[in-house]
Amino acid sequence: MAEDPPFTLAVVGAGPRGVGVLERISANAPELLSGRLVVHLIDPFPPGPGRVWRYEQSPLLRMNSMPEDVTVFTDDSVRVDGPIRPGPSLIEWVRQVRDGTLDAHVPADVRPELEALSGTDFPTRRLQSAYLDWFYRKVRAELPDGIEVVEHRAHAVRVEDGIPQRVWLAGADEPVRADAVLFTVGHIDAEPDERESELAGFATRHGLAYYPAGYTADVDYSAVPAGEPVLVRGFGLAFVDLMLLLTEGRGGRFEELTCGGLRYHPSGAEPRLHVGSRRGVPYHAKIGYRLRGKPLRLPRFFDDYAIRKLCETPGPVRFREDVWPLIAKEIAWGYYSELFTGHPERVRLDFAVFADAFADASWDSETMRALIARAVPGEQDRLDLSALDRPLAGRRSGTAEEFAKELREYVEADLSRRADAEFSADLGAFMALLSVYGQLAGLVATGRLDAESQVSEMDGWFHGFFSYFASGPPPRRLEELLALHEAGLVSFVGAEMRVRADAEAGVFTASGASFPGEVTARTLIEARLPDAGIGRASDVLLRRLRDSGELTEESIVDSTTGDRLASGRIHTRVSDARMLDAVGDPRPRWFAVGPHTSARSAAAFTRPRTNAASFRQNDATAREILRLTGER
Q1: For position 504, which CATH number holds?
Q2: What is d(CA 211, CA 239) in angstroms, rounded to the nearest whole number?
Q3: CATH number for the domain that contains residue 38
Q4: Which residues, if any, are the signal sequence (predicted)?
């Protein structure tokens, strides 16, 4: 009797998320696999690292996570139906490779870094690439009998729905035939929006240079002229990468000073960067210490019970009005838990007494403010989320020089605070923010969040606040920023940066709310990732699926008007990652995972022992795919 043909799965995107699902398929196969399974991994970049973490990028670019905070393996904190398969975090992997107990390929130019790396350093992306490459090889080597993997180093350009599905690859004469398709969606490139198109057109007409938002490592900045002023809009991680590529990447060097800090020695090939943003300050430096108090109890005030109770109330649920007070209280709980248990000499109440009173008080209430004033005598020890979010609000300097001095002092204070374990309460707030982020998918799944509030306040404002506070650069990057400012190669435009196309002068002009005056330049760079909306996706495959109606953009019904508001995300069923069609029905054999789906997982690596949403989503998706193998 002829053997049944294998079930085939096409995975479009073979970066960390695609390989993470493959690992979960491997782990769950002994329980759920029926027959044989062939997995086609489709990606023009190496499986494991994928596009973002590929080895072939500048050695200057680093992770913004410490190696002890990065893992690709489940542990016993992860609540999944499938088996737990633990493995080394990045720093454990480094140590095992270093002492010879684990065999892995590490490129020669990365080896010195591996030999010297500590758990609190910030690795290069090339070292992370080696870790992810090893992870992929390990997953492949440990596949159970009956599972085969086929690699395709190519772009997927078209998917034809049917039995089987047909996935067409660039330059291929025949499609990949599959019984199911999984899209693992990472960074999404976008077509310019209306304003970007206007600026690009203005630049073309006047012989200027305009660089729209994009992933920094993939943009060619070689034409940015040396010695000329350049306007840069955006002060987050994309700016940090850009800053390094246009300075040290052009031959300059940083010198460690015996008195502390850095001095920059220019090569002469650098432009002069004038940077600003809405906040006008860089993202907070990553924290360089560990908690000193008792283990945090998270989530506490923004848990499943709180979300369920919130959504039982009549009327629409608005993020800033209804959800944010719970989130703010959760962040404050993490902060004050660490302050009270890690630094009891700086508080006036017993923690148990404070915790009871804290639980009974609403976040933004006189009762809460009075409690904190009574319990925490030091102003510098009180959490002010408004000041954290907009540190320059209402402040205006008389001159650019005065503002530059203020901003330097702000960055120096941030560096000092984030390196001093006396302020470890900040880490408590950070851990609470991570917990909050993991709860948001559950909130969205209730369907009760007001549409405009979800898109503009949760996906917009709150995501920006999270990134600014919790996803900043390594401290050294801010030290380099100060050195480049001292060298005259970086200056600050300030908060509420405005860019104007000056047709009369034929230049770009920038101003801000922090000081009077304007800066002009012939080059403007948007230092940020593009808004990752499916409606503007430039990827050939996503665009075709969107235009054909086969890929549906998530939309939320406005509870007041009944209108539907697009979120920009791929519409998926949160419980199992199945893609939804135009009327909201699940497509039985199309799946999508990633930060730009309805599940809203963080676009970051998992910290060990945090029950990460991405692991839970990967496991649920893998189990659904494996169940399909028994339904043919």
Answers
A1: 3.50.50
A2: 13
A3: 3.50.50.60
A4: none
